[in-house]
Amino acid sequence: MVEQFVGTWKLTASDNFDEYMKAIGVGFATRQMGNMAKPNLVFSVSDGVISMKAQSTFKTTEISFKLNEEFDETTADDRKTKTTFTFENGKLVQKQTWDGKTTVLEREIQDGKLIAKCTMDDVVAVRTYEKEA
Ligand code: DKA
């Protein structure tokens, strides 16, 4: 159920994120901002439309989408991607393709925390979010 993601989540840990950003082609200056940012992730669901807002001092992005339907996304690092979300085995899976490349971001709830696993080729970053009271 995607409803389990609904709420506001705060980044509390980030592992290998700089390497992930390098792997997707993010330049040095933007990586510094990305490494420092402690985003809030805000999920809501209404009438089958899921909204995901990532708020930080660096940038705020918001996307709204339906599962299994491709849409155009502009990412925080300004990639223009074709993006599709699916829900598989309890994981919300975001597939982004651009310039012949593909990255996958899998989000799931584990022990009450939202875990985001970001994969680009053989590079994996894991980011942990905890729910705001
Ligand atoms: C997450 O949900 C993963 C966010 C991935 C963003 C990649 C681009 C960042 C550029 C600053 O935590």
TrEMBL record:
Signal peptide interval: none
Q: Which Pfam families match?
A: Lipocalin (PF00061)
Assigned keywords, A-Z: Retinol-binding, Transport, Vitamin A
Alphabetically, the GO molecular function entries are: retinal binding; retinol binding
Q: Which domain of life is it from?
A: Eukaryota
Q: Could you tell me which residue ranges the Cytosolic fatty-acid binding proteins domain spans?
A: 7-24
Record's PROSITE patterns?
Answer: FABP
Q: What family does the database annotate? A: Belongs to the calycin superfamily. Fatty-acid binding protein (FABP) family.
**Role played:** Cytosolic CRABPs may regulate the access of retinoic acid to the nuclear retinoic acid receptors.
Q: What is this protein called?
A: Cellular retinoic acid-binding protein 1
Source organism (scientific name):
Mugilogobius chulae (yellowstripe goby)
